[in-house]
Structures are given as structure tokens and as C-alpha cells.
Amino acid sequence: MQNPKKRLIELDALRGLAASMVVIFHYTFQFDKVFQSDLMKSIEFDVGKYGVQLFFIISGFVIL
Q1: For the chain, counts of helices (H) and of strands (E)
Q2: Alpha carbon of residue 62 to chain centroid
Q3: Ranges assigned E (strand) in 1-64
Q4: End-to-end alpha-carbon separation of the chain, Å?
Q5: Are 55 and 18 in contact (CB under 8 A)?
């Protein structure tokens, strides 16, 4: 008999990666404006803005 509450570890890992992408995006997005520094200007993480969509798509699939 299969366990109906079985979690997909790969999806949990991908959801964690998506959340990390959002955190990194927020950290690098306005770093130069907040801290008046050009240190992080070349390290902007624009791909992180897609982390929110990825997170919600996976969450919707898991809830379903």
C-alpha cells in the first residue's frame, strides 16, 4: 500500500531553490542604492525575479 502523504523531495528542493533565488534577488537588486556602493553593481541577480512564479507553481502542484 502506498503512503498518500508521500512528499516529493525533488519538488521541495526546487521550491527551496526558488525561495533562495528571491532572497538573492532582493539582496542584490538595490544594494548599490541603499549602501551607496558600486561593489554589487556587477553582481545583479535578475533571474531571481522568476523565483516567485516558480515557487507558486510548485506550491500549487503540491497542494493539488
Answers
A1: 3, 0
A2: 16
A3: none
A4: 21
A5: yes
User: At residue 41, does pLDDT exceed 80?
Assistant: no
Q: Tell me the residue type at 24.
A: I
Contact 38, 32 (CB under 8 A): yes
Amino acid 25: pLDDT: 84
Q: What is the pTM of this model?
A: 0.71
The ranges assigned to domains in the chain are: 9-63
pLDDT for the residue numbered 64? 77
Distance in angstroms (rounded) separating the CA atoms of residues 41 and 34: 12
**Proportion of the chain above pLDDT 90, given as a percent:** 20
